[in-house]
Write a structure and sequence with these properties.
Bound molecules: pyridoxal-5'-phosphate
CATH architecture of the largest domain: 3-Layer(aba) Sandwich
Number of strands: 14
Strand order of the largest sheet: 1-9-8-7-6-2-3
CATH topology of the largest domain: Aspartate Aminotransferase, domain 2
Number of domains: 2
Order of helices and strands: HHEHEHEHEEEHEEEHHHEHEHEEEH
Largest sheet: 7 strands, mixed
Shape: globular
CATH class of the largest domain: Alpha Beta
Helix content: 25-40%
Strand content: 15-25%
Distance between the termini: 75 Å
C-alpha cells in the first residue's frame, strides 16, 4: 500500500465546516470520529481541573465549537437562565444595569427581582431607540456597568443596533451582553460587532431538537471567561455529559437547519401578512419591519422566529394556537418542529405585549404543510 502524502490539515474557518468538524477527537487509527460521552464526576489528580463542574471532555468539545462559531471562549451552563444568572451574579451591589424593555420573560422577571431587592438599579429601555439607549447608559451622572439586550427581542422581534450600542458601552466602560439565542452564531456574531459577552439558551436553535436544557456564555476576554467558569463551579449549574453529547450532535446540522427553517419563516411571514385574520406580522425579513435595514446590516438572515397579531380578542388568538394539528401548541423555539403559542398565556409575560400576539418558531417541515395547517386554523376566525 502506498503511504498517503502527509499534509497539513486544512485550516477551516467557515461556520458550516466548524459546525460539522469542530470539537472532534484526534484522528487516530480506530479511534472514534465522534466525541464520546465522558460520564465521570471526578478526574485523576494531577491536571488543572479535577472535577466535572470545572471540566468535562464532552462539554469541552461542545464549548470549542460554540466558541469558534462566536469568536471567543465558551462556558456552558445547565440552562439559559443559569447562564444569565451567572452574569447577574457578577453585578456589583447597587450597580446600574440597562436592559431591554422587552426581553425573555425569565430574564425580565429576574432583573426586576434584583431591582426590587435593591441589589441593582434597573433602567429599562427601548433598544431600537439609540438616543434613549445613550441616555439610559449615562443618566444623572451615573453610568451603567452592564447593558443586556436581545436582538431580535423575544417576542416582539424588535432589532437593536448592536454595533452602535457596543460603541456607546465602550465609550463609558460598560459591558454589553447580547442574548443571541434567536439568531444563533451562523446568522449574527455579537462579539465581532463589539459586544463583550454573548449569551445563549443552547436549549433552542444551537442544539435544535427540543430534547435538552443548556446555556452558554461566550467572551473573548480571558479574565471574564475565567470568572464565568468560576460562577459555574460555585453556583453548580453545570450540564451533564449526556446533554453535551446531544447538543454537539445537534450543532452538526445547525447551518442546514437554520437555512431551511428561515426559508419557511420567510414564506409564512409573507403569507400571514396577506391573511385577513392577521393584523400585523413582526419579522425582519419583511420590508415593512421598522428596523429591517439594521437587521440586514448586522445579520446574515432574518432568522427562524416571527410573531404576529390576530384580529379579535385573546380567545381568538388562543383558538388559533389550539386548532393547529401539525404544528405543536407549545412554548420554546429553535427546534426542528414548528411551535406556536400565544405569549400572554403566561401570567409573567410583559403586559405591554398584545393579548393576541402569537409567536411562531418555524421548523424544518415542508412549508406547504405548515401553511395548510396555519391557514386552516386562522380561517376558523372567519366563521
Ligand atoms: C431569548 C431567550 N433567552 C433565554 C432563555 C432561557 O433559556 P432556558 O430555557 O434554556 O433557561 C430563553 C427561553 O425561552 C429565551 O427564549
Amino acid at each position: 500500500m502506498v503511504a498517503p502524502d502527509s499534509r497539513e490539515p486544512v485550516d477551516f474557518s467557515h461556520d458550516d465546516t466548524i459546525s460539522v468538524h469542530g470539537g472532534r477527537p484526534p484522528r487516530v487509527p480506530d479511534g472514534p470520529i465522534n466525541q464520546p460521552i465522558v460520564a465521570s464526576s471526578t478526574l485523576h489528580a494531577g491536571g488543572p481541573f479535577g472535577y466535572h463542574r470545572e471540566y468535562n471532555e464532552t462539554l469541552n468539545a461542545l464549548e470549542n465549537v460554540i466558541g469558534q462559531l462566536e469568536g471567543g471562549t465558551a462556558v456552558t451552563f445547565s440552562s439559559g437562565m443559569a447562564a444569565a444568572n451567572a452574569v447577574f451574579d457578577l453585578f456589583a451591589p447597587q450597580s446600574v444595569i440597562v436592559a431591554s424593555k422587552f426581553s425573555y420573560t425569565g430574564v425580565s422577571v429576574r432583573l426586576r427581582e434584583l431591582a426590587d431587592a435593591h441589589r441593582i438599579t434597573l433602567r429599562l429601555v427601548d433598544i431600537t431607540d439609540m438616543d434613549a439607549m445613550r441616555e439610559a447608559i449615562h443618566r444623572d451622572g451615573i453610568t451603567a456597568s452592564w447593558v443586556w439586550i436581545e436582538s431580535p427581542t423575544n417576542p416582539m422581534i424588535e432589532i437593536g443596533d448592536i454595533r452602535a450600542t457596543a460603541a456607546m458601552c465602550h465609550e463609558v466602560g460598560a459591558r454589553l451582553v447580547v442574548d443571541n439565542t434567536f439568531m444563533t452564531p451562523v446568522r449574527q456574531k455579537p462579539l465581532a460587532l463589539g459586544a463583550h459577552v454573548v449569551m445563549h439558551s443552547v436549549t433552542k436553535g444551537l442544539s435544535g431538537h427540543s430534547d435538552l436544557l443548556m446555556g452558554a456564555l461566550v467572551t473573548a476576554d480571558h479574565e471574564l471567561a475565567e470568572e464565568f467558569l468560576m460562577r459555574r463551579v460555585l453556583l453548580g449549574a453545570v450540564p451533564s455529559a449526556f446533554d453535551g453529547f446531544l447538543a454537539l450532535r445537534g450543532i452538526r446540522t445547525l447551518n442546514v437547519r437554520i437555512d431551511r427553517a428561515e426559508h419557511n419563516a420567510q414564506i409564512l411571514a409573507e403569507r400571514l401578512q396577506d391573511h385577513p385574520c392577521v393584523r400585523v406580522v413582526h419579522y425582519p425579513g419583511l420590508p415593512g419591519h421598522k428596523n429591517a435595514q439594521v437587521a440586514k446590516d448586522q445579520t446574515s438572515g432574518p432568522g427562524t422566529v416571527l410573531s404576529f397579531e390576530t384580529i379579535g380578542g385573546p380567545e381568538d388568538a388562543q383558538r388559533v394556537c389550539e386548532s393547529v394539528t401539525l404544528m405543536s401548541h407549545a412554548t420554546s423555539l429553535g427546534g426542528v418542529e414548528t411551535l406556536i403559542e400565544r405569549r400572554r398565556r403566561w401570567p409573567a409575560e410583559n403586559p405591554e405585549i398584545s393579548e393576541t400576539l402569537i409567536r411562531l418558531s418555524c421548523g424544518i417541515e415542508n412549508v406547504e404543510d405548515l401553511w395548510a395547517d396555519l391557514r386552516a386554523a386562522l380561517d376558523l376566525l372567519l366563521r
